[in-house]
Amino acid sequence: LPMAFRDVNARRHIGLQQLSSLALPGRTLLGPMKSCKFVVDESTNQSTLICSAVRLIESLDLTSAAGQLLNETIQAQNKEFKTGMSTLLFLVGAWSNAVLECLQQNVPVSAIVSVMSEGLTSCCERVQCLQISIHDINKELCSSSVRPNAFKSKTCQTGCESFLNPQILLYFQKDISASEEVIPINSCSHQDDDCNFNNCLVSPVPGFGSTASLVKPVGDKSTSVTSGSGVIASSCNKQKLTHSRYFSTLGEGHFSSQQSNFQGYLSEQSADPCECYGLGHLAMTLSHGNQTSMKLLQTIVAYQQERAECSGSSQFNIAEIVTCCLLGLPESYSCVSPGFVTLVSPEQATVIKYFEDKSLRILLMDGDLTEQYRHLGFNRPCNVRTILEHPSLQEGKAGGLWLSSMLDILVSFEVNLVLVKGNVCENLMERCIANGILVIGSVAQDVLRAFGEVTSAQPVTYLTQLNASCVGSGAQVELWKASDDRAVDLGELLPVKIEARGIPLLTAVLTTTVSSKMQLIEDQFWTSVYRLHHALNDDKVFLGGGAVELLCLSHIQMLAEQPLQPANKNTVKESHNPWLVASATECKSVVLQALASGWKQYLSVVMYNTAKAASELEACTLVDHHLKKAADCGSPSAYILKELRRSDLLSGGSGPFANHGDGLKVYDNVTAKTEAWRRALDLVLLVLQTDAEIITGPKKNPLLNSHVSSDFMFL
Q1: In this prediction, what percent of the chain has a pLDDT beyond 70?
Q2: Are 266 and 168 in contact (CB under 8 A)?
């Protein structure tokens, strides 16, 4: 072996080992049945419940360069997709270990980089056959004899209809023949209090879109219900419906009767029958077992679809969704409320009591409402130097003048409500409260834009820019109330609802009594929202349940068995490393198997986490079993598609796939998944090459020459 190559393997690759160690705690976060972790802050002794790779990495001590690169990679994935971070973290650890094993087998660094990169590119191309367009999903759902069950039975509706106010569900399919009788949602029996999500899963919106009808022949006294999705037996206590990417039972607890006062916006049926199930069904298939977030998202989807039919706007607009976290209320109070729900102080709440049922003049500010604030790009005067002999006295005097001036401006324009994007001066807020002006800070840009569109208010950067045309009208403010019309008093902060006629904003009110769980609930909700958002942007999804990873494994095995085909016939003669070219075939096989080990471990850990295997070893055996059958079939993709249709095998949990016993499939995002793969491998290879350069030096290592990569072209 070349001396430089011996030096690479003689020393330890610290960066790769650090990546492996940092990724190890994330193994339990993989799959739908995640094991949450408590992270304790030693300085404050406060604990936080985490269940995502993003929160885990934020909680770890990342002083090393490899750790900081890992954090930046995961944060980039989270910023762009809000999903796929756990997969990324796991593959970083798995592929780091695989690369270390390759180095132990004396595989050159350049071979690892070239073959792994080409292998991943080949896999991404191969799995395109497992993509399905959104249109095909709706079409398949409409033509299928088994559709998502809108409701189980009348007794099942007790614990499930509560995600919406009963007023929402007053209307059903209007084209009902005279021989059919409509069964109102709120006519269900409330005698069975145990009918919860462990016994049945009920969509909060019939048909997940515009609405399907619940009908039965006149005179039929049975308790079974015929919905737009088929006939459902009445004994819901004997039925369980799993909605997980792999395998999971539904979470316990039911949702009590509390929700926002939507008006009956589900009164019309979509002209396209496929839209009756469209986005709501897609949200379910992408939920990966997160039932609470799925129900909230389906409520939002139903509202936005109905609004889109009337206005012609987008059927799903993520910019019209905001969240409000209420700590102190049971999780059963989580709901979707129209308008903008936020938290204010008790002092601000006293002003709101005078505003109820009144039309308010509203002002929008797209910066901070402080004396020191200057917009981005502001240039201070040059060659000016200010000297203050008594800074405290001068600042206090100047500050008082600024406060009085700003308050006079608000009063002169009769402004009642001010929404500020940034921070608000506390002294100014106190003076505004005393003068009956409500000022709310830290308001998202999308919220300001929404209020600007419906109130004709124009955002300003400074109050001195204010004129009559900038002030809008028609806003309304009231204390947010629970389903029983009781105002919620959480002590330090109170929830309020701000809305205006025609505003498209929807607030997902997320509640819990456990402070350490609040961040977890919000993260899970946004993950569900962005999965649907990216699926619609891609206009396609992957078949889920491990099908994509299994096809990658099968494809890598096929590539590993193929002999090396150099891009140039004179490669051996022209290469500066004859030894490297002579062993290229063997190196290629070793590296490809290392690449495949990442996906194999991925499937094994997910199956173990979801209790589909008693151990990771047993799960690995099950994966090997499917790989062998796929190879014997001759067409791995055809085998996988066939297995996905076999509900008996898939629901039995004997393979890496998962499916719903009622015919519902599970899906994954396309771009988010493949980008997580690429980011994970790019990080591992970057750290590998950096370690090699640190050990041998960039000029002393002959194995990092760019011309070597052509020797490993196998595609």
Answers
A1: 66
A2: yes
Determine phi and psi for 424, rounding to 5 degrees: -125, 135
The SS3 assignment for 215 reads strand
In a domain, 646, yes or no: yes
First to last CA, the chain: 27
pLDDT tens digits, one per residue of 13-44: 899 999 999 999 999 999 888 888 888 888 88
CA 641 to chain centre: 26
Tell which residue, 671, 714, 676, has the closest CA to residue 128: 671
DSSP lists the bridge partners of residue 566 as none
Q: For the domain that residue 481 is a member of, what is the CATH number?
A: 3.50.7.10
Looking at the domain assignment, is residue 56 inside a domain?
A: yes
Residue-number span of the structural domain to which 632 is assigned: 3-132+541-564+579-714
Q: Is residue 694 part of a domain?
A: yes
Please give the tally of structural domains in the chain.
Answer: 2
Q: Looking at the structure, do residues 355 and 336 belong to the same domain, yes or no? A: yes
| Residue 117 · residue 685 · CB < 8 Å | yes
Q: Answer yes or no: do 705 and 558 share one domain.
A: yes
Instruction: Give the C-alpha separation, 618 to 613, whole Å.
Output: 6
pLDDT of the residue at 313: 61
Both 560 and 525 in one domain: the answer is no
Question: pTM of this prediction?
Answer: 0.76
The count of other CB atoms within 10 Å of the CB of residue 39 is: 16
Q: Is 462 in the same domain as 338? A: yes
| Separation CA 52–CA 232 (nearest Å) | 36
Closest CA to 212 of 259, 153, 180, 171: 171
Question: Is 59 a domain residue?
Answer: yes
**CATH number of the domain that residue 695 is part of:** 1.10.560.10
- If phi > 0 it is left, if psi is from -120 to 50 it is alpha, else beta; for residue 660 that is beta
Query: Are 34 and 49 in the same domain?
Result: yes
Closest CA relative to residue 120, chosen from 675, 710, 703, 652: 675
CA distance 277 to 146: 12
Strand order in the sheet with 335-338: 321-327, 506-512, 335-338
pLDDT tens per residue, range 547-573: 999 999 999 989 988 766 554 445 444
Residue 697 has a pLDDT of 62
- The residue assigned the tokens 């099950």 is 622
What is the phi-psi region of residue 509: left when phi exceeds 0, alpha when psi lies from -120 to 50, beta otherwise?
beta
Q: How many other CB atoms are there within 10 angstroms of residue 44's CB atom?
A: 7
DSSP state of 563: P
Residues 410 and 492 in one domain: yes
Whether 336 contacts 162, CB under 8 Å:
no
pLDDT at position 452 over 90: yes
Name residues whose C-beta falls within 8 Å of residue 623's C-beta, 6 or more positions apart in sequence. 550, 553, 600, 603, 604, 607, 656
Which residue, chain included where needed, has tokens 């809000």?
82
Q: Which two tokens stand for residue 419?
A: 């929404």
Distance of alpha carbon 554 from alpha carbon 627, whole angstroms: 6
Q: 29 and 7: one domain?
A: yes
